[in-house]
């Protein structure tokens, strides 16, 4: 293609038309813009401002700040530095000589250190349960059962825990029962309840003697629960074959009682498990109470129902007996149990030696622990259940 080609001539002219402005042109434009920016405020003030705007219109007075001062205990007249050696160095003596003659404990060098005896007050220890005495038994077809020894000493006398000094406070008692069926709750009751709380174990508890030994080792007094015919009792129910019943002969009930008593030793008395039917039948109950009396034990009734004839029958044969003021836990509710315990405390203040019975619910364990801690402030003292027997 030749240089005089029309297409090349058009392209050349187009490149010349689109060439960028020169650098000098750019600098001139920038300088003009800067002059305008600097001059604009002065021109506006010149034509639109007023000279009076620059004149002061008033004044503000500012007080002088006081000179700062640092207080010093030596600024006041009469103040002196404390004498740090006043208790160690007599007046007029050289401090170096005096201090050299005193050891690190403040005693003269070469002298025996001063010893100030201090009394250490410990809480009274729980009474220790006496060892199980094999002489306090008699024989039955099921093995050894409780009975007085040749000297006439009874299991009640041997295994009841001594009552703590009352120190002017009114005694009150609690039995927590149903132990042995649930091992976890049984262990909690043994370990956590105050030793003055009496514990009762179900006669059908597996390894019953081991549990009784643990409870006695912790300082608890122990009772044995005897199953008695109650409302809705069914003879065919599992575990009911050893229950004392109104339709059994005196000898059959005696054998059932002996079986329960033979399960362990070391308990001071017995307490009913149910019995709403049997305990209202004096004809059936009388031989049973005679057998408990022959065993040298005390008798307790849990108070879950009215059994007015029991006390009269027990008194007629000089059987140590106590009926509960009522259950502290008719339902496993913390608020119900705490209300019942408050009622128990109020009753005990007017009737010393009041007794109540509870079941080994977790709520019962917690409530009794908290309640027992308040007894001293209420003028009460917790004592073992056998202290209430009459």
UniProtKB/TrEMBL annotation:
Q: Single Gene Ontology BP term?
A: carbohydrate metabolic process
Its domain of life reads: Bacteria
Q: What is this protein called?
A: Divergent polysaccharide deacetylase family protein
According to the record, the residues making up region (Disordered) are 56-79
The biased composition feature labelled Polar residues covers 61-70
Q: Which CDD domains match?
A: CE4_DAC2
Q: Which Pfam families match?
A: Polysacc_deac_2
